[in-house]
Amino acid sequence: MSELIFERSKPGRQARAQRPGGEEAPLHQIPEGFLRQTPPAMPEASEMQVVRHYTNLSRKNFSIDTHFYPLGSCTMKYNPRGAHKAASLPGFLQRHPLAPPSRSQGVLSCLYHLQEIIADVTGMDGVSLAPMAGAQGEYAGIAMIRGYHLSRGDTGRNEVIVPVNAHGTNPATATMCGFKVVEIAVNKDGDVDLDALDAALGPKTAALMLTNPSTCGVFERNIREIADKVHAAGGLLYYDGANLNAILGKVRPGDMGFDVMHLNLHKTFATPHGGGGPGAGPVAFVERLRPFQPTPVVVKAEAGYRWADKRDLPDSIGNLSAFMGNAGILLRAYAYALMLGREGMVRVAEYATLNANYMAVKLKEAGFRLAYPNRRASHEFIVTLAPELKETGVSAMDFAKRLLDFGFHAPTTYFPLLVPECFLIEPTETESIDEIDGFVEAMKTIREEAFTQPDRVKTAPHTTPVQRLDDVKAARELNLKYVPADTAI
Amino acid sequence: MSQIPAELKYASTHEWVRLEEGGIAVVGITDHAQAALGDIVFVETPEVGTTVAAGDEAGVVESVKAASDIYAPIAGEVVEVNAALEDAPETVNNDPYGDGWFFKLKVSDPSELDALLDADAYREVCEAEDH
Q1: Chain centroid offset of residue A106 CA
Q2: Each residue of A230-241: pLDDT tens digit?
Q3: Whether A420 and B129 lie within 8 Å, measured CB to CB
Q4: CATH class of the domain defined by B9-120
Q5: Closest residue in chain A to residue B131, using alpha carbons only
Q6: Which residue in the set A414, A417, A472 is minimally distant from B39, CB to CB?
Q7: Number of domains making up chain A
Q8: What number is the ipTM of this complex?
Q9: Where are the domains of chain B?
Protein backbone atom coordinates (compact mmCIF):
# COMPACT_ATOMS: atom_id res chain seq x y z
CA MET A 1 0.00 0.00 0.00
CA SER A 2 1.29 3.46 -0.85
CA GLU A 3 1.69 6.21 1.72
CA LEU A 4 -1.09 8.70 2.29
CA ILE A 5 -0.37 12.29 1.33
CA PHE A 6 -0.79 12.91 5.07
CA GLU A 7 2.24 10.75 5.75
CA ARG A 8 4.41 12.50 3.16
CA SER A 9 4.14 15.87 4.85
CA LYS A 10 7.37 17.61 5.95
CA PRO A 11 7.22 21.04 7.62
CA GLY A 12 8.06 23.90 5.26
CA ARG A 13 7.57 22.03 1.98
CA GLN A 14 5.31 23.86 -0.43
CA ALA A 15 4.45 24.56 -4.05
CA ARG A 16 4.76 28.33 -4.33
CA ALA A 17 4.01 28.38 -8.04
CA GLN A 18 0.51 27.05 -7.32
CA ARG A 19 -0.37 29.73 -4.80
CA PRO A 20 -3.32 31.82 -6.08
CA GLY A 21 -2.16 35.39 -6.68
CA GLY A 22 1.44 34.60 -5.82
CA GLU A 23 3.09 35.32 -2.48
CA GLU A 24 0.69 38.11 -1.54
CA ALA A 25 -2.77 36.69 -2.05
CA PRO A 26 -5.45 39.40 -2.47
CA LEU A 27 -7.01 39.11 0.95
CA HIS A 28 -7.85 42.79 1.31
CA GLN A 29 -11.40 42.32 0.02
CA ILE A 30 -12.26 39.92 2.85
CA PRO A 31 -13.55 41.68 6.00
CA GLU A 32 -11.08 41.50 8.88
CA GLY A 33 -13.43 39.50 11.10
CA PHE A 34 -13.61 36.65 8.61
CA LEU A 35 -9.86 36.22 8.17
CA ARG A 36 -8.58 33.16 10.01
CA GLN A 37 -5.93 33.67 12.66
CA THR A 38 -4.05 30.42 12.14
CA PRO A 39 -3.14 28.74 8.84
CA PRO A 40 -5.25 25.68 7.93
CA ALA A 41 -3.75 22.30 8.80
CA MET A 42 -2.71 20.94 5.42
CA PRO A 43 -0.12 18.32 4.50
CA GLU A 44 3.03 20.06 3.27
CA ALA A 45 4.56 18.66 0.09
CA SER A 46 6.36 19.81 -3.04
CA GLU A 47 4.62 20.16 -6.39
CA MET A 48 6.46 17.15 -7.81
CA GLN A 49 5.50 15.00 -4.80
CA VAL A 50 1.84 15.96 -5.16
CA VAL A 51 1.77 15.24 -8.89
CA ARG A 52 3.49 11.90 -8.44
CA HIS A 53 1.29 10.90 -5.49
CA TYR A 54 -2.01 11.53 -7.25
CA THR A 55 -0.85 10.15 -10.58
CA ASN A 56 0.13 6.91 -8.88
CA LEU A 57 -3.20 6.77 -7.08
CA SER A 58 -5.04 7.27 -10.38
CA ARG A 59 -3.21 4.27 -11.82
CA LYS A 60 -4.92 2.13 -9.20
CA ASN A 61 -8.39 3.08 -10.45
CA PHE A 62 -10.77 0.17 -10.76
CA SER A 63 -13.41 1.17 -13.27
CA ILE A 64 -15.58 0.04 -16.13
CA ASP A 65 -12.81 1.19 -18.48
CA THR A 66 -10.36 -1.23 -16.85
CA HIS A 67 -12.40 -4.12 -15.44
CA PHE A 68 -15.66 -6.07 -15.69
CA TYR A 69 -18.02 -4.42 -13.20
CA PRO A 70 -21.23 -6.50 -12.73
CA LEU A 71 -22.59 -4.33 -9.89
CA GLY A 72 -26.30 -5.18 -9.77
CA SER A 73 -28.81 -2.34 -10.10
CA CYS A 74 -26.02 0.04 -11.12
CA THR A 75 -25.81 -0.71 -14.87
CA MET A 76 -22.05 -0.27 -15.15
CA LYS A 77 -21.91 -0.47 -18.93
CA TYR A 78 -19.55 0.96 -21.48
CA ASN A 79 -19.96 4.67 -22.13
CA PRO A 80 -19.19 5.20 -25.81
CA ARG A 81 -16.50 7.81 -26.41
CA GLY A 82 -18.42 9.09 -29.41
CA ALA A 83 -21.22 10.38 -27.18
CA HIS A 84 -18.71 12.24 -25.07
CA LYS A 85 -17.00 13.68 -28.13
CA ALA A 86 -20.28 14.97 -29.55
CA ALA A 87 -21.22 16.59 -26.24
CA SER A 88 -17.81 18.23 -26.11
CA LEU A 89 -18.11 20.17 -29.36
CA PRO A 90 -16.84 23.74 -28.83
CA GLY A 91 -20.28 25.23 -29.45
CA PHE A 92 -21.67 23.24 -26.53
CA LEU A 93 -18.70 23.59 -24.21
CA GLN A 94 -18.24 27.31 -24.65
CA ARG A 95 -21.87 28.37 -24.46
CA HIS A 96 -22.54 30.53 -21.41
CA PRO A 97 -25.53 29.31 -19.38
CA LEU A 98 -26.97 32.85 -19.46
CA ALA A 99 -26.59 33.22 -23.24
CA PRO A 100 -29.88 34.42 -24.77
CA PRO A 101 -32.06 31.87 -26.59
CA SER A 102 -31.38 33.66 -29.89
CA ARG A 103 -27.74 32.61 -29.52
CA SER A 104 -28.56 29.13 -28.17
CA GLN A 105 -30.85 27.65 -30.81
CA GLY A 106 -28.46 24.74 -31.43
CA VAL A 107 -28.32 23.47 -27.88
CA LEU A 108 -32.01 24.23 -27.29
CA SER A 109 -32.99 22.21 -30.36
CA CYS A 110 -30.92 19.25 -29.08
CA LEU A 111 -32.56 19.40 -25.65
CA TYR A 112 -36.01 19.76 -27.18
CA HIS A 113 -35.38 16.73 -29.37
CA LEU A 114 -34.08 14.80 -26.33
CA GLN A 115 -37.32 15.62 -24.48
CA GLU A 116 -39.23 14.13 -27.41
CA ILE A 117 -37.04 11.02 -27.63
CA ILE A 118 -37.45 10.32 -23.90
CA ALA A 119 -41.22 10.81 -24.09
CA ASP A 120 -41.30 8.38 -27.01
CA VAL A 121 -39.15 5.65 -25.46
CA THR A 122 -41.02 5.82 -22.12
CA GLY A 123 -44.54 6.13 -23.54
CA MET A 124 -45.13 9.36 -21.66
CA ASP A 125 -46.66 12.68 -22.82
CA GLY A 126 -44.05 15.14 -21.63
CA VAL A 127 -40.53 15.42 -20.22
CA SER A 128 -38.64 17.90 -18.07
CA LEU A 129 -34.85 17.61 -18.17
CA ALA A 130 -34.39 19.81 -15.10
CA PRO A 131 -33.55 17.24 -12.35
CA MET A 132 -29.80 16.92 -11.89
CA ALA A 133 -29.62 13.39 -10.48
CA GLY A 134 -31.76 10.30 -10.00
CA ALA A 135 -32.70 11.25 -6.45
CA GLN A 136 -33.73 14.73 -7.60
CA GLY A 137 -35.79 13.19 -10.39
CA GLU A 138 -37.59 11.01 -7.86
CA TYR A 139 -38.17 14.03 -5.66
CA ALA A 140 -39.58 15.97 -8.62
CA GLY A 141 -41.90 13.12 -9.59
CA ILE A 142 -43.36 12.66 -6.12
CA ALA A 143 -43.62 16.45 -5.64
CA MET A 144 -45.60 16.57 -8.91
CA ILE A 145 -47.95 13.88 -7.59
CA ARG A 146 -48.38 15.89 -4.40
CA GLY A 147 -49.11 19.02 -6.46
CA TYR A 148 -51.67 17.11 -8.52
CA HIS A 149 -53.65 15.84 -5.52
CA LEU A 150 -53.58 19.21 -3.76
CA SER A 151 -54.69 21.05 -6.92
CA ARG A 152 -57.84 18.95 -6.86
CA GLY A 153 -58.50 19.70 -3.21
CA ASP A 154 -57.70 16.05 -2.48
CA THR A 155 -55.81 16.81 0.70
CA GLY A 156 -56.17 13.52 2.60
CA ARG A 157 -53.69 11.54 0.51
CA ASN A 158 -50.63 11.38 2.73
CA GLU A 159 -49.37 7.83 2.12
CA VAL A 160 -46.97 6.42 -0.46
CA ILE A 161 -46.82 2.64 -0.90
CA VAL A 162 -43.41 1.07 -1.51
CA PRO A 163 -42.61 -2.65 -1.90
CA VAL A 164 -40.14 -4.11 0.58
CA ASN A 165 -37.50 -4.69 -2.11
CA ALA A 166 -37.52 -1.08 -3.38
CA HIS A 167 -34.37 0.98 -3.70
CA GLY A 168 -33.74 2.89 -0.48
CA THR A 169 -34.22 6.16 -2.32
CA ASN A 170 -37.96 5.45 -2.77
CA PRO A 171 -38.99 5.64 0.90
CA ALA A 172 -36.48 8.47 1.36
CA THR A 173 -38.10 10.45 -1.48
CA ALA A 174 -41.62 9.90 -0.15
CA THR A 175 -40.53 11.02 3.30
CA MET A 176 -38.78 14.11 1.90
CA CYS A 177 -42.03 15.07 0.16
CA GLY A 178 -43.94 14.80 3.44
CA PHE A 179 -45.60 11.42 2.90
CA LYS A 180 -45.90 8.47 5.25
CA VAL A 181 -44.31 5.33 3.78
CA VAL A 182 -46.39 2.14 3.73
CA GLU A 183 -44.26 -0.93 3.01
CA ILE A 184 -45.81 -3.97 1.31
CA ALA A 185 -44.47 -7.49 0.86
CA VAL A 186 -43.41 -9.33 -2.29
CA ASN A 187 -44.22 -13.01 -2.74
CA LYS A 188 -41.76 -15.87 -3.11
CA ASP A 189 -41.51 -15.45 -6.88
CA GLY A 190 -40.59 -11.79 -6.55
CA ASP A 191 -43.94 -10.24 -7.57
CA VAL A 192 -45.77 -7.65 -5.47
CA ASP A 193 -48.13 -9.36 -3.01
CA LEU A 194 -51.53 -8.28 -4.36
CA ASP A 195 -53.33 -8.98 -1.07
CA ALA A 196 -50.86 -6.73 0.72
CA LEU A 197 -51.45 -4.08 -1.94
CA ASP A 198 -55.22 -4.32 -1.51
CA ALA A 199 -54.84 -3.93 2.23
CA ALA A 200 -52.59 -0.89 1.85
CA LEU A 201 -54.68 0.97 -0.77
CA GLY A 202 -57.30 3.45 0.36
CA PRO A 203 -58.40 7.08 0.47
CA LYS A 204 -55.02 8.04 1.94
CA THR A 205 -53.04 6.56 -0.96
CA ALA A 206 -51.18 9.23 -2.91
CA ALA A 207 -49.00 6.91 -4.98
CA LEU A 208 -47.32 3.56 -5.42
CA MET A 209 -43.60 3.66 -6.22
CA LEU A 210 -42.33 0.69 -8.23
CA THR A 211 -39.21 -0.40 -10.06
CA ASN A 212 -39.94 -2.74 -12.95
CA PRO A 213 -38.11 -5.01 -13.40
CA SER A 214 -37.68 -5.03 -9.66
CA THR A 215 -34.55 -5.37 -7.58
CA CYS A 216 -35.34 -9.09 -7.40
CA GLY A 217 -34.18 -9.10 -11.02
CA VAL A 218 -37.56 -10.15 -12.34
CA PHE A 219 -40.32 -8.44 -14.31
CA GLU A 220 -43.45 -7.56 -12.34
CA ARG A 221 -46.00 -9.72 -14.15
CA ASN A 222 -49.13 -8.20 -12.64
CA ILE A 223 -48.29 -4.62 -13.47
CA ARG A 224 -51.52 -3.91 -15.34
CA GLU A 225 -53.62 -5.26 -12.50
CA ILE A 226 -51.53 -3.30 -10.00
CA ALA A 227 -51.94 -0.09 -12.02
CA ASP A 228 -55.71 -0.59 -12.23
CA LYS A 229 -55.97 -1.15 -8.48
CA VAL A 230 -53.92 1.95 -7.62
CA HIS A 231 -55.84 4.14 -10.07
CA ALA A 232 -59.18 2.81 -8.81
CA ALA A 233 -58.16 3.87 -5.31
CA GLY A 234 -57.40 7.38 -6.59
CA GLY A 235 -53.61 7.04 -6.39
CA LEU A 236 -50.96 7.52 -9.05
CA LEU A 237 -48.07 5.27 -10.11
CA TYR A 238 -44.45 6.30 -9.93
CA TYR A 239 -41.89 4.38 -12.01
CA ASP A 240 -38.33 4.30 -10.70
CA GLY A 241 -36.18 4.29 -13.85
CA ALA A 242 -33.24 2.59 -12.16
CA ASN A 243 -33.74 -0.62 -14.12
CA LEU A 244 -34.84 0.93 -17.41
CA ASN A 245 -31.90 -0.69 -19.21
CA ALA A 246 -33.75 -4.01 -19.11
CA ILE A 247 -36.77 -2.79 -21.07
CA LEU A 248 -35.42 0.08 -23.16
CA GLY A 249 -37.37 0.24 -26.39
CA LYS A 250 -39.19 -3.05 -25.62
CA VAL A 251 -41.80 -2.10 -23.03
CA ARG A 252 -42.82 1.41 -22.11
CA PRO A 253 -43.69 2.48 -18.53
CA GLY A 254 -46.47 4.66 -19.97
CA ASP A 255 -48.07 1.56 -21.52
CA MET A 256 -47.80 -0.28 -18.20
CA GLY A 257 -49.98 2.39 -16.59
CA PHE A 258 -47.38 4.55 -14.85
CA ASP A 259 -48.09 8.27 -14.48
CA VAL A 260 -44.65 9.69 -13.83
CA MET A 261 -41.08 8.38 -13.77
CA HIS A 262 -37.49 9.46 -13.70
CA LEU A 263 -34.62 8.21 -15.85
CA ASN A 264 -31.03 7.95 -14.70
CA LEU A 265 -29.52 9.24 -17.93
CA HIS A 266 -26.05 8.88 -16.45
CA LYS A 267 -26.76 5.17 -16.06
CA THR A 268 -28.77 4.13 -19.10
CA PHE A 269 -27.57 6.82 -21.53
CA ALA A 270 -23.78 6.94 -21.68
CA THR A 271 -22.31 8.86 -18.78
CA PRO A 272 -19.65 7.36 -16.49
CA HIS A 273 -21.20 7.07 -13.04
CA GLY A 274 -20.58 5.69 -9.60
CA GLY A 275 -18.10 8.40 -8.70
CA GLY A 276 -20.55 10.87 -7.23
CA GLY A 277 -21.81 12.66 -10.30
CA PRO A 278 -22.70 14.76 -12.12
CA GLY A 279 -25.85 12.99 -13.25
CA ALA A 280 -29.14 13.74 -14.92
CA GLY A 281 -32.55 12.48 -13.77
CA PRO A 282 -35.23 13.81 -16.16
CA VAL A 283 -38.88 13.24 -15.27
CA ALA A 284 -41.36 11.94 -17.85
CA PHE A 285 -45.09 12.23 -17.13
CA VAL A 286 -48.61 11.79 -18.46
CA GLU A 287 -50.72 14.74 -19.56
CA ARG A 288 -52.53 15.35 -16.29
CA LEU A 289 -49.24 15.93 -14.47
CA ARG A 290 -47.85 18.35 -17.10
CA PRO A 291 -48.76 21.57 -15.21
CA PHE A 292 -46.63 20.48 -12.25
CA GLN A 293 -43.39 19.63 -14.09
CA PRO A 294 -40.16 21.23 -12.84
CA THR A 295 -38.84 24.20 -14.80
CA PRO A 296 -37.22 25.26 -17.04
CA VAL A 297 -38.22 23.16 -20.04
CA VAL A 298 -37.57 23.79 -23.72
CA VAL A 299 -40.60 24.73 -25.82
CA LYS A 300 -40.89 25.32 -29.53
CA ALA A 301 -42.40 28.65 -30.52
CA GLU A 302 -42.80 30.43 -33.84
CA ALA A 303 -39.62 32.42 -33.25
CA GLY A 304 -37.66 29.28 -32.40
CA TYR A 305 -36.85 27.33 -29.23
CA ARG A 306 -37.03 29.02 -25.84
CA TRP A 307 -37.12 28.20 -22.13
CA ALA A 308 -40.53 27.94 -20.49
CA ASP A 309 -40.41 28.90 -16.82
CA LYS A 310 -42.74 29.53 -13.90
CA ARG A 311 -44.52 32.29 -15.89
CA ASP A 312 -45.59 29.69 -18.47
CA LEU A 313 -46.21 26.97 -15.86
CA PRO A 314 -47.60 28.68 -12.73
CA ASP A 315 -48.38 25.35 -11.03
CA SER A 316 -44.86 23.99 -11.59
CA ILE A 317 -43.02 22.56 -8.59
CA GLY A 318 -40.39 25.12 -9.59
CA ASN A 319 -36.73 25.23 -10.48
CA LEU A 320 -34.45 22.54 -9.13
CA SER A 321 -31.18 24.29 -9.87
CA ALA A 322 -29.86 27.70 -10.84
CA PHE A 323 -29.85 26.86 -14.54
CA MET A 324 -31.30 24.06 -16.65
CA GLY A 325 -30.00 20.72 -15.42
CA ASN A 326 -26.62 19.21 -16.22
CA ALA A 327 -26.27 20.22 -19.86
CA GLY A 328 -23.24 18.05 -20.62
CA ILE A 329 -24.91 14.86 -19.40
CA LEU A 330 -28.07 15.69 -21.35
CA LEU A 331 -26.08 16.25 -24.54
CA ARG A 332 -24.21 12.95 -24.08
CA ALA A 333 -27.56 11.21 -23.67
CA TYR A 334 -28.85 12.89 -26.82
CA ALA A 335 -25.82 11.78 -28.82
CA TYR A 336 -26.12 8.23 -27.44
CA ALA A 337 -29.83 8.07 -28.30
CA LEU A 338 -29.11 9.18 -31.86
CA MET A 339 -26.26 6.67 -32.19
CA LEU A 340 -28.55 3.84 -31.11
CA GLY A 341 -31.68 4.88 -32.90
CA ARG A 342 -34.95 3.09 -32.24
CA GLU A 343 -33.53 -0.30 -33.28
CA GLY A 344 -30.41 0.10 -31.19
CA MET A 345 -32.42 0.84 -28.06
CA VAL A 346 -34.22 -2.45 -28.44
CA ARG A 347 -30.87 -4.24 -28.75
CA VAL A 348 -29.74 -2.67 -25.44
CA ALA A 349 -32.62 -4.39 -23.64
CA GLU A 350 -32.26 -7.65 -25.57
CA TYR A 351 -28.53 -8.08 -24.98
CA ALA A 352 -28.69 -6.91 -21.36
CA THR A 353 -31.35 -9.56 -20.73
CA LEU A 354 -29.61 -12.25 -22.77
CA ASN A 355 -26.31 -11.73 -20.96
CA ALA A 356 -27.96 -11.89 -17.54
CA ASN A 357 -29.89 -15.05 -18.36
CA TYR A 358 -26.85 -16.75 -19.90
CA MET A 359 -24.78 -15.99 -16.82
CA ALA A 360 -27.55 -17.09 -14.45
CA VAL A 361 -27.84 -20.47 -16.20
CA LYS A 362 -24.05 -20.95 -16.22
CA LEU A 363 -23.82 -20.23 -12.49
CA LYS A 364 -26.74 -22.53 -11.77
CA GLU A 365 -25.00 -25.31 -13.72
CA ALA A 366 -21.88 -24.66 -11.64
CA GLY A 367 -23.84 -25.44 -8.48
CA PHE A 368 -24.90 -21.99 -7.32
CA ARG A 369 -28.44 -21.39 -6.06
CA LEU A 370 -30.54 -18.80 -7.85
CA ALA A 371 -32.93 -16.87 -5.58
CA TYR A 372 -35.75 -17.05 -8.16
CA PRO A 373 -35.04 -20.25 -10.10
CA ASN A 374 -38.52 -20.37 -11.63
CA ARG A 375 -38.26 -16.92 -13.15
CA ARG A 376 -36.54 -15.64 -16.24
CA ALA A 377 -34.00 -13.00 -15.22
CA SER A 378 -34.36 -9.43 -16.44
CA HIS A 379 -31.11 -7.51 -16.89
CA GLU A 380 -29.89 -8.76 -13.50
CA PHE A 381 -30.38 -11.76 -11.24
CA ILE A 382 -29.79 -12.88 -7.67
CA VAL A 383 -27.60 -15.72 -6.44
CA THR A 384 -27.86 -16.66 -2.78
CA LEU A 385 -24.69 -17.94 -1.19
CA ALA A 386 -26.55 -19.10 1.93
CA PRO A 387 -25.83 -22.80 1.13
CA GLU A 388 -22.10 -22.07 0.74
CA LEU A 389 -22.06 -20.14 4.02
CA LYS A 390 -23.80 -22.98 5.82
CA GLU A 391 -21.51 -25.68 4.46
CA THR A 392 -18.16 -23.88 4.40
CA GLY A 393 -18.44 -20.76 6.58
CA VAL A 394 -17.54 -18.62 3.56
CA SER A 395 -19.94 -15.68 3.20
CA ALA A 396 -21.12 -13.59 0.28
CA MET A 397 -18.78 -10.84 1.48
CA ASP A 398 -15.84 -13.28 1.33
CA PHE A 399 -16.78 -14.30 -2.23
CA ALA A 400 -17.01 -10.61 -3.13
CA LYS A 401 -13.55 -9.85 -1.75
CA ARG A 402 -11.99 -12.88 -3.46
CA LEU A 403 -13.43 -11.84 -6.85
CA LEU A 404 -11.18 -8.76 -6.69
CA ASP A 405 -8.14 -11.06 -6.87
CA PHE A 406 -9.46 -12.37 -10.18
CA GLY A 407 -9.76 -8.84 -11.58
CA PHE A 408 -13.54 -8.53 -11.27
CA HIS A 409 -15.47 -5.88 -9.44
CA ALA A 410 -17.76 -7.56 -6.92
CA PRO A 411 -21.49 -7.69 -7.67
CA THR A 412 -23.87 -5.87 -5.32
CA THR A 413 -23.82 -7.74 -2.01
CA TYR A 414 -26.54 -8.10 0.61
CA PHE A 415 -29.14 -6.27 -1.47
CA PRO A 416 -32.06 -6.73 -1.72
CA LEU A 417 -32.18 -7.53 1.98
CA LEU A 418 -34.92 -10.11 1.70
CA VAL A 419 -32.57 -12.65 0.12
CA PRO A 420 -29.90 -13.87 2.58
CA GLU A 421 -26.21 -13.86 1.55
CA CYS A 422 -27.05 -12.55 -1.87
CA PHE A 423 -25.22 -11.34 -4.92
CA LEU A 424 -27.17 -9.09 -7.30
CA ILE A 425 -25.39 -9.53 -10.63
CA GLU A 426 -25.82 -7.30 -13.69
CA PRO A 427 -23.47 -8.05 -16.58
CA THR A 428 -24.99 -5.35 -18.91
CA GLU A 429 -25.26 -5.52 -22.70
CA THR A 430 -21.75 -4.32 -23.44
CA GLU A 431 -19.80 -7.35 -22.15
CA SER A 432 -18.62 -10.10 -24.47
CA ILE A 433 -19.26 -13.77 -23.81
CA ASP A 434 -15.54 -14.11 -22.96
CA GLU A 435 -15.81 -11.73 -20.02
CA ILE A 436 -18.98 -13.39 -18.81
CA ASP A 437 -17.46 -16.86 -19.04
CA GLY A 438 -14.36 -15.59 -17.24
CA PHE A 439 -16.48 -14.35 -14.36
CA VAL A 440 -18.34 -17.66 -14.14
CA GLU A 441 -14.99 -19.51 -14.07
CA ALA A 442 -13.77 -17.29 -11.22
CA MET A 443 -16.95 -17.98 -9.27
CA LYS A 444 -16.47 -21.73 -9.79
CA THR A 445 -12.87 -21.52 -8.60
CA ILE A 446 -13.83 -19.56 -5.49
CA ARG A 447 -16.59 -22.04 -4.72
CA GLU A 448 -14.04 -24.85 -4.97
CA GLU A 449 -11.71 -22.93 -2.65
CA ALA A 450 -14.54 -22.40 -0.17
CA PHE A 451 -14.72 -26.17 0.29
CA THR A 452 -10.99 -26.99 0.10
CA GLN A 453 -9.19 -23.96 1.54
CA PRO A 454 -11.80 -21.61 3.04
CA ASP A 455 -9.24 -19.39 4.74
CA ARG A 456 -7.89 -18.40 1.34
CA VAL A 457 -11.32 -16.87 0.60
CA LYS A 458 -12.00 -15.51 4.07
CA THR A 459 -8.77 -13.50 4.08
CA ALA A 460 -9.09 -12.21 0.51
CA PRO A 461 -8.25 -10.02 -1.30
CA HIS A 462 -4.57 -10.90 -1.58
CA THR A 463 -3.46 -9.02 -4.68
CA THR A 464 -5.04 -5.55 -4.34
CA PRO A 465 -3.17 -2.41 -3.17
CA VAL A 466 -5.00 -2.61 0.17
CA GLN A 467 -6.22 -5.92 1.56
CA ARG A 468 -9.14 -6.83 3.81
CA LEU A 469 -10.30 -3.59 5.36
CA ASP A 470 -11.68 -3.25 8.86
CA ASP A 471 -15.07 -1.94 7.76
CA VAL A 472 -16.43 -2.09 11.30
CA LYS A 473 -13.69 0.21 12.58
CA ALA A 474 -14.13 2.46 9.56
CA ALA A 475 -17.83 2.85 10.29
CA ARG A 476 -17.47 3.27 14.03
CA GLU A 477 -14.40 5.50 14.07
CA LEU A 478 -14.52 7.42 10.82
CA ASN A 479 -11.56 9.77 10.86
CA LEU A 480 -10.47 11.48 7.66
CA LYS A 481 -9.05 14.67 9.11
CA TYR A 482 -5.43 15.62 8.62
CA VAL A 483 -3.57 16.28 11.84
CA PRO A 484 0.07 17.44 11.56
CA ALA A 485 2.46 14.85 12.93
CA ASP A 486 3.83 17.18 15.60
CA THR A 487 0.39 17.97 17.00
CA ALA A 488 -0.55 16.05 20.09
CA ILE A 489 -4.03 14.54 19.78
CA MET B 1 -28.19 -22.39 14.51
CA SER B 2 -29.06 -19.20 16.33
CA GLN B 3 -30.17 -19.04 19.96
CA ILE B 4 -33.92 -18.71 20.55
CA PRO B 5 -34.58 -18.73 24.32
CA ALA B 6 -37.80 -20.55 25.17
CA GLU B 7 -38.90 -18.04 27.83
CA LEU B 8 -39.15 -15.04 25.45
CA LYS B 9 -41.82 -13.84 23.02
CA TYR B 10 -40.96 -12.84 19.47
CA ALA B 11 -42.18 -10.65 16.61
CA SER B 12 -41.86 -11.85 13.03
CA THR B 13 -39.79 -8.69 12.45
CA HIS B 14 -37.09 -10.24 14.71
CA GLU B 15 -37.58 -8.40 18.00
CA TRP B 16 -37.80 -10.27 21.30
CA VAL B 17 -39.83 -9.25 24.37
CA ARG B 18 -39.31 -10.19 28.00
CA LEU B 19 -42.07 -9.22 30.43
CA GLU B 20 -40.74 -8.07 33.80
CA GLU B 21 -42.44 -7.08 37.02
CA GLY B 22 -44.67 -4.02 37.12
CA GLY B 23 -45.88 -4.40 33.52
CA ILE B 24 -42.49 -3.49 32.05
CA ALA B 25 -41.41 -5.20 28.82
CA VAL B 26 -37.78 -5.32 27.71
CA VAL B 27 -37.25 -5.31 23.92
CA GLY B 28 -34.24 -6.24 21.83
CA ILE B 29 -33.37 -7.91 18.54
CA THR B 30 -32.83 -11.64 18.22
CA ASP B 31 -29.64 -13.60 17.76
CA HIS B 32 -30.83 -14.49 14.28
CA ALA B 33 -31.30 -10.79 13.47
CA GLN B 34 -27.87 -9.74 14.73
CA ALA B 35 -26.23 -12.59 12.81
CA ALA B 36 -28.07 -11.65 9.61
CA LEU B 37 -27.12 -7.99 9.99
CA GLY B 38 -23.46 -8.66 10.72
CA ASP B 39 -21.25 -6.24 12.65
CA ILE B 40 -23.48 -3.52 14.06
CA VAL B 41 -22.00 -0.04 13.90
CA PHE B 42 -24.83 2.23 15.01
CA VAL B 43 -27.97 1.96 17.11
CA GLU B 44 -30.70 4.58 17.44
CA THR B 45 -33.12 4.05 20.33
CA PRO B 46 -36.50 5.81 20.74
CA GLU B 47 -36.88 8.77 23.09
CA VAL B 48 -38.06 8.10 26.63
CA GLY B 49 -41.69 9.16 26.94
CA THR B 50 -42.63 8.18 23.38
CA THR B 51 -45.84 6.19 23.09
CA VAL B 52 -45.76 3.45 20.48
CA ALA B 53 -48.33 1.07 19.01
CA ALA B 54 -47.50 -2.51 18.07
CA GLY B 55 -45.67 -2.41 14.73
CA ASP B 56 -44.53 1.22 15.03
CA GLU B 57 -40.96 2.10 14.17
CA ALA B 58 -39.08 2.48 17.41
CA GLY B 59 -35.44 2.72 16.43
CA VAL B 60 -32.82 1.94 13.84
CA VAL B 61 -29.96 -0.51 13.76
CA GLU B 62 -27.20 -0.11 11.23
CA SER B 63 -24.58 -2.69 10.34
CA VAL B 64 -21.80 -2.86 7.79
CA LYS B 65 -24.36 -4.46 5.48
CA ALA B 66 -27.58 -2.54 5.98
CA ALA B 67 -29.74 -0.22 8.03
CA SER B 68 -32.96 -1.67 9.46
CA ASP B 69 -35.87 -0.27 11.42
CA ILE B 70 -36.67 -1.71 14.83
CA TYR B 71 -40.39 -2.11 15.47
CA ALA B 72 -42.24 -2.06 18.77
CA PRO B 73 -43.61 -5.60 19.17
CA ILE B 74 -46.37 -4.39 21.50
CA ALA B 75 -47.93 -1.05 22.48
CA GLY B 76 -46.68 1.01 25.38
CA GLU B 77 -44.73 3.99 26.61
CA VAL B 78 -40.94 3.99 26.36
CA VAL B 79 -39.69 4.29 29.95
CA GLU B 80 -36.00 3.52 29.52
CA VAL B 81 -33.50 3.06 26.68
CA ASN B 82 -30.13 1.33 26.63
CA ALA B 83 -27.87 4.37 26.32
CA ALA B 84 -24.77 2.19 26.48
CA LEU B 85 -25.42 1.01 22.91
CA GLU B 86 -24.52 4.44 21.58
CA ASP B 87 -20.86 3.94 22.41
CA ALA B 88 -20.81 0.14 22.23
CA PRO B 89 -23.20 -0.99 19.45
CA GLU B 90 -21.25 -4.26 19.19
CA THR B 91 -22.98 -5.31 22.44
CA VAL B 92 -25.99 -6.20 20.28
CA ASN B 93 -23.82 -8.73 18.41
CA ASN B 94 -22.17 -10.09 21.54
CA ASP B 95 -25.14 -10.35 23.88
CA PRO B 96 -28.43 -9.82 22.01
CA TYR B 97 -30.66 -11.15 24.80
CA GLY B 98 -28.73 -9.57 27.68
CA ASP B 99 -26.76 -6.31 27.68
CA GLY B 100 -27.76 -5.73 24.06
CA TRP B 101 -31.39 -4.85 24.92
CA PHE B 102 -32.79 -1.75 23.18
CA PHE B 103 -35.60 -0.23 25.26
CA LYS B 104 -38.17 -0.87 27.97
CA LEU B 105 -41.90 -0.30 27.56
CA LYS B 106 -44.62 0.32 30.11
CA VAL B 107 -47.05 -2.11 28.50
CA SER B 108 -50.51 -0.74 27.63
CA ASP B 109 -52.24 -4.08 27.21
CA PRO B 110 -50.47 -7.22 28.45
CA SER B 111 -52.82 -9.42 26.41
CA GLU B 112 -51.00 -8.21 23.27
CA LEU B 113 -48.17 -10.49 24.30
CA ASP B 114 -50.36 -13.46 23.48
CA ALA B 115 -50.41 -12.43 19.84
CA LEU B 116 -46.62 -12.68 19.61
CA LEU B 117 -44.72 -15.80 18.56
CA ASP B 118 -43.32 -18.34 20.97
CA ALA B 119 -39.84 -19.77 20.45
CA ASP B 120 -41.00 -22.64 18.22
CA ALA B 121 -43.09 -20.42 15.98
CA TYR B 122 -40.24 -17.93 15.68
CA ARG B 123 -37.81 -20.71 14.78
CA GLU B 124 -40.06 -21.55 11.86
CA VAL B 125 -39.96 -17.93 10.70
CA CYS B 126 -36.16 -18.01 10.73
CA GLU B 127 -35.95 -21.32 8.91
CA ALA B 128 -38.34 -20.12 6.22
CA GLU B 129 -36.14 -17.06 5.68
CA ASP B 130 -32.93 -19.02 5.52
CA HIS B 131 -34.26 -21.27 2.86
Answers
A1: 29
A2: 999 999 999 999
A3: yes
A4: mainly beta
A5: A386
A6: A472
A7: 3
A8: 0.76
A9: 9-120
